[in-house]
Amino acid sequence: MSRATQISIIAITLLAAVAIGVADVSDFLPELTAFVLIPVIAGTYYIGFRYGVFVALAAAVTELIAHIELATGVGHSEVIFNTATHTFIYILTAALIAGLIRQLRTITSLEEQRNTDLELAKAVHESVFAPVPDVYGTLSIGSRVAFARELGGDYYFLKGLDGKLFLCIADISGKSTAAALFAALLNQSVIEALQRTADLSVLVEKVNFSISPSLPEDMFVTMFCAFISDEDLSYVNAGHPPPLLYSKGEGSTKMLLSGDVLPLGVGPDLVIEAVTESFRPGDILLATTDGITESDAFKERSYEKLQALLNRNADADVSELTEAVFSQAVPAGTKNPHDDIIVVCIKRQPKS
């Protein structure tokens, strides 16, 4: 606030308080005592508590003098008592307003700090999701992501490695900031594990060993990892909703499971064996998080519906297939889904 503005507020509130104090004893105007609260509140809000008290005292003294000088038929003791009562009310109001202003400023400061922290968390979270290529060798790739809140705990990562495509899709229990920060931790653990091994079983064991000490007792991570080579697909599934593998040659769909394997974070040791399936031209891998399978569109007989969708769209472009799955779970016009959602669809094209 500029100096000129402050001076204007001081002059207006002080003159208003004095004028109301004088007018309050007039026979031609109604009771005006309550109107003194207006300059008291304005002065306290814009200048401060001490100035609010000063305005209150100025109004009270003016009212006292005006009553003594102008009023008739009223005893001085009664005037002094009434003025003291009014003064107490004015000062109490100034104190209440000052307290509210302090609380408002505290809330505003906390909100600004929260927004700063949220922007930092968003930056960290966005760094997790590297751009996904549309094509890798003979593989066409489609993906969609949506979060229920500003941030989410769903995660996916794709990377070409020695002629193979590595895919990881995971779901950290919980939502928003905490889950998003653990997604960043998971991303770092996956990248470090990939630098040390191409064995999926060992990779998942290393990731589990890395993140388990950091996860609270009530948090865990479901995860599916796969290497897709020229002819086949090797995978491990640690408690994640099973992806679907559509075989064009057989016209069938298979759920990719790894037995009764617990999610990551449940314990320090995780033993899991990789499984290999053929992955030939026309075959499709559809991997999602539970935001799809638990959505209104798919929560009843979810895998039957997804299998039917794959069969109907087996010849469609991979981006169209991805969009078909996503749009059923998140209808047009929906601002935020009920849960975090990731859809990854990979289709092998014939060799050119």
Summarize the topology.
Elements: H1 3-23, H2 37-46, H3 49-70, H4 76-128, E1 135-136, E2 139-146, E3 154-161, E4 164-172, H5 176-196, H6 200-211, E5 221-228, E6 232-238, E7 244-247, E8 252-255, E9 275-278, E10 284-288, H7 290-293, H8 302-312, H9 318-329, E11 341-348
Helix pairs in contact: 1-2, 1-3, 2-3, 2-4, 3-4, 4-5, 5-6
Radius of gyration from CA coordinates: 34 Å
> In which order are the strands of the major sheet placed?
1-2-11-10-7-8
- Estimate the helix proportion, in percent: 40-55%
User: What portion of residues belong to β-strands?
Assistant: 15-25%
Kindly state the number of beta strands: 11
End-to-end separation:
70 Å
Apparent shape: elongated
Order of helices and strands: HHHHEEEEHHEEEEEEHHHE
Number of helices: 9
Mean pLDDT: 82
